[in-house]
Amino acid sequence: MSYENLHGRGAPPPDYHASLAPVSEPEVAAQEDGVRPNTYEAQRCPVCGRAGAQEWLQAPDRLHGRHEQYTLVRCPVCSLVWLSHPPRPEEMHLHYTGAYHQLISAGGQNSPHRWRDRKATLTQYKQSGALLDLGCSSGSFLEFMRSESWELYGLEMSAEAARAAEARSGAQVYAGDILDACFPREYFDVITCFDVLEHLYEPRQVMARVTEWLKPGGIFYVLVPNVDSAEARVFGSYWHGLELPRHLFHYSPASLKFLAESAGLQAVSLETRRNFAVGTSLRYVWDDACRAVGIRRTPAAYQAEACLSWRAARKLTRMTVLRSLRVLAPLVGGGESIHAVFRKELSRPEVGPA
Ligand SMILES: [Zn+2]
C-alpha cells in the first residue's frame, strides 16, 4: 500500500467554483422589476446537479468571533445546503486555528461514550476485518476499536495528528488528503467518517473513492450534522453545526442518501440522533446579545472556561428554553446528527452465454 503526495491538493477542479459563482444578468433584471433577486439560481447543486439554488441564510464564523458574513444556499430538489463562495483551499488554513484544533482534540479525548455508541452501531453489521477511519484526528476511535478482530488504518490531513494517532492506536495512519490516497481497490470491510464529510470540497469524488475502496458487501458508516434538525431550525444562523466557513456542505438525511446512492452505495440505516449539544448555539446567541449592549466577550474558540455571567445565563436557559425544546424538538425536525450506514452491493454473478 503506498501513499504519496501527502500535502496540499492545490485548487479543486474548475467546475466546483464555476458552479458556485453567482450570475449577474438575472440580478440586474430583477432589481429593475423591484423584486429581490435570487443571484444563486444558476448555481448547480454539487450533489444532484440541478439548478435553482435559493439563498438559505447568512452567518459569520461565530466560533472565532469574526465578522465576515458567509452565504449558504439550498438546493430545492435534494435539499443540500452549501457554502457559496467558500474560501479557496489554499486559504482555508486561516480558518483552522490552533484553538480550533485544540477544541476538536479535547472533544475526542473526553467522550468515550461516543466511541462506545459508534462501535455498537458498527458491529451490528461487521464484527471483524480491515477498517479505515477517514479523518481520524488523533486516533481516539481507532484506539477504541483496537483488538485482534480488526486490521486498523487511518487517514488524517494533519501529519502531527496522524503520528499521534498511530502511536496511540497501533493503526497504520497516513497523512494527507483523501483524494490523494492510494489504497487498493476493494480492500476494506468498513470505512468510517465521523464529522469530516461536511469539511470536504468534493463530496462526490470522495464518495466514489469510498465505494472503490470497499469490498463488495463492505460498510460505510458516516456521521454528519443534520441541517434539517430541530436545533438547526430553532437557532438558524446561531446553530453551532454551521461552523462557517469550515463546513462547506450541510446535509439532510435525504441529500446524504442521494449522494451515497449516486456513488453506487445502498442505504442500510439512516437515522438521526439527538445529542442536545446546544450549549454552543446558546452561547452564540448570548455573545450577540452582549455585543448589542456594548459588552465584548472572548470568542468561544479562545475561552476554555465559561465566565460567571455566561454560566448563570446558561443555567437559566437550561431551566427554561431547553426544557421547552426537549418537548418541542420531535415536532419540528430530526435529531442533530445523522448516523448513516451504507453498503456496497455484493457483486452480481457473471451471466455467461447460454
Ligand atoms: Zn441537489
Run of helices and strands: HHEEEHHEHEHEEHEHEHEHHE
CATH architecture descriptor of the largest domain: 3-Layer(aba) Sandwich
CATH 4th-level superfamily of the largest domain: Vaccinia Virus protein VP39
User: Helix proportion of residues, in percent?
Assistant: 25-40%
CATH class group of the largest domain: Alpha Beta
Distance between the termini: 40 Å
CATH topology of the largest domain: Rossmann fold
Question: Low-confidence stretches at least 5 residues in length (pLDDT < 50)?
Answer: 1-32
Biggest beta-sheet profile = 7 strands, mixed
Please state roughly what percent of the residues sit in beta strands, choosing from under 5%, 5-15%, 15-25%, 25-35%, 35-45% or over 45%: 15-25%
Plain-language structure description:
With 354 residues, the protein is α/β, with parallel strands linked by helices. The chain has two domains: 93-276 and 333-344, Vaccinia Virus protein VP39 (Rossmann fold), CATH 3.40.50; 279-331, no CATH class. It is 34% helix and 20% strand. It is built from eleven helices and eleven strands. The strands form two sheets. The chain has a seven-stranded mixed β-sheet, with helices on both faces. It has a four-stranded antiparallel β-sheet with strand order 1-2-3-9, with no helix packed on it. Helix 5 links the parallel strand 4 (129-134) and strand 5 (150-156). Helix 10 (279-292) crosses helix 11. Residues 45, 47-48, 50, 75, 77-78, 80 line the site of zinc ion (ZN).
